[in-house]
Each structure stands twice: as structure tokens, then as C-alpha cells.
Amino acid sequence: MISKFTLENYFQIHEGKAIDFRLRVQKDQNNQYSFYIHPQDINGETWDFKVIGNFLECTTSTSETLNSLLVDGETLDNLDKNVLFLMIKHLNTKISELETVSTSQRDQLFRRVQELEQFQREYETAQEYESDRS
What we know:
Helix 2 (62-69) packs across helix 4. A 4-stranded antiparallel β-sheet has the order 1-2-3-4, with no helix packed on it. The chain has helices spanning 7-13, 62-69, 73-78, 81-133, and strands spanning 21-27, 33-39, 47-52, 55-58. Strand 3 and strand 4 form a beta hairpin. The protein is elongated and about 85 Å long. It is of the alpha+beta class and 134 residues long.
């Protein structure tokens, strides 16, 4: 899943904690550039970006990004409202995805249990039939 978090959001998270960052650039076989960024010489988050012309696309998973944003209360105090709203939107999307998966898995499990119960009834009926024939 591609995130809508930005490089600016990344810098906001590390504001007051880091001014130097390591940037590792990679170029794939299709001449597509990507990079990851990490605060230099301190603990911090690493985010991945894909370069598309003059635009960057954050490819760090939403859960990784949200985890990095939810580190502590001080970090949340330093984020602007747009970042917080974006976090809430992504959390809502993730919760909806999880509910959908859970519902789907529950429905599949329920159908499987019904199939097994039907098989058991048919087996028991066949056993009764065989014992009646004997």
C-alpha cells in the first residue's frame, strides 16, 4: 500500500532531533530512482520514497509510517493538524481493511464448519444405513 505521507512530514517528525540525514539512492533496471532516508548518527525512523519526475511517493507501508508517527506525545505535539488528520484517515482505512478481512475469514470459517457438519450428518446417515442393512 502506498502512503500519502510526505518528506515534509518525515522532517516534522524529526524536528529538533536531527539536522543531518543519510540518504541512500538506488536505481532499478527500469531506470527508476528510489531512496531511503534515516537520521544520521541517532535513533530514528527510516522511510522509503520512489522518485517520479519532480514528485516523491512514500512507499513505506502505512503501518510502519503510523508506528513511526506514534512514538511519543512530544512528536504528536510537533505535528501540524494536516498530518494528524492524515494519520487518522490512514488508521480508519487500516481498521476498515482489517474488519473486511476478519469478516471474510469469519464467513469462510462459518461456511467450512457448515460443510463439515453436513459431511458428518451424511457420514452418520451412511453408517446407520450400513448397520441397518447388516
